[in-house]
Amino acid sequence: MAISRFSYASMNVMDVEAAVRHYVHVVGLRETDRDADGRVYLQAADTQDHHCVILNPAKTAGVEHLGFKVSDPADLDEATAAVTAYGLPVTRVPAGAVKGQGEGVRFPLPSGQHMMLYYHADKVGYLTGMENPNPVSAHSTPGGRVTHLDHTLISAQNPGDDVKFLTEVLDFSLTEKVVDPAGNTLAAFLTCGHTMHDLAIGPGPDNHFHHMAFGMDSRTEVIHGVDLLKEKAVPALEYGITRHGIAGVTTIYFHDPSGNRNEFYNGAYLAPGAPGWVPPIVWQAEHFPRGAFYYENAVPEAFFAEVT
């Protein structure tokens, strides 16, 4: 099966217009569409597909589903058979049910969050245009200078169950993991493409969302993003700007108006692009604080306690 990448997060928000202002004027996405059910679709500068974030009007925050793109339409049938054989329910989603998107298959992970696999996405083009474009976005573009939606982290009571499903059924590769003294997986970082993680699993309650990360071209752009958070009075995690020991990336966390956590992020290493080619890096639990926050060597209590 060829799942090529994490493509979008469909998020529940309590105030859609406040969320749109946040994702346009703080994060730096562009609004690409709206639908009759009140959903708003947004995309980053350097991605051609119709959306990377969907905002759904809802009474509570959290993730509605996570979208992953496959490389061939036949992968949808293969996924349906494999997920069904594993014992999880699969729903075929008709083309157009998600605006700008073709047919998909939807199913829950063992931890309860829903994934959607699909092949076709309508194209909106790059922010800089598709004919004789400038190499960089205009400096008047609002928000952080994010290039793409990079990855997401969800929470699970038993992360090992999600790892088993994702690696054995959907051909994800495990790049790094955190284990307790008995060898149980406490956190895991998995890729379906060339980045070190498309989907990560952290400790916490089932069926909850931890964060989605927006990629930037350089550490300088992350610093610019922190300046923007201060200017816009957007509360950020007390650690930041900082570096993760896991993946070594530069990072800052903050929240949208409904409480869904966002990340500005730069510097992950590349993955080999095929399942099982290299063994995962293993972190023992006592070293996890350094892996999570390399400079501080400690994990704020709120970091895993606050999920939506």
What is this entry, summarized?
The chain is of the alpha/beta class and about 300 residues long. About 20% of the residues lie in helices and about 35% in strands. The two termini are about 30 Å apart.
Written account of the structure:
It is a single chain. The chain has 308 residues and is an alpha/beta fold. It has two domains: 3-121, 2,3-Dihydroxybiphenyl 1,2-Dioxygenase, domain 1; 146-305, 2,3-Dihydroxybiphenyl 1,2-Dioxygenase, domain 1 (Roll). It is built from six helices and 17 strands. The strands form two sheets. The protein has a nine-stranded mixed beta sheet with strand order 14-15-16-13-9-12-11-10-17. 44% of the residues are buried.
Strand order, largest beta sheet: 14-15-16-13-9-12-11-10-17
Q: β content, as a range?
A: 25-35%
CATH superfamily of the largest domain: 2,3-Dihydroxybiphenyl 1,2-Dioxygenase, domain 1
CATH class of the largest domain, please? Alpha Beta
CATH topology name of the largest domain, in short, is 2,3-Dihydroxybiphenyl 1,2-Dioxygenase, domain 1
C-alpha Rg (nearest Å): 18 Å
List the quaternary state of the chains. single chain
Helix content: 10-25%
Compressed to H and E, one letter per element, the order equals EHEEEEHEEEEHEEEEHEEEEHH
Mean pLDDT: 94
Number of strands: 17
Can you tell me the residue ranges where pLDDT is under 50 for at least 5 consecutive residues?
Answer: none
Helix segment tally: 6
Helix/strand-derived class? alpha/beta
What's the architecture of the largest domain, going by CATH?
Answer: Roll
Shape: globular
Domain count:
2
Amino- and carboxy-terminal Cα gap: 30 Å
The biggest sheet, with number of strands, parallel, antiparallel or mixed sense and barrel status, is:
9 strands, mixed
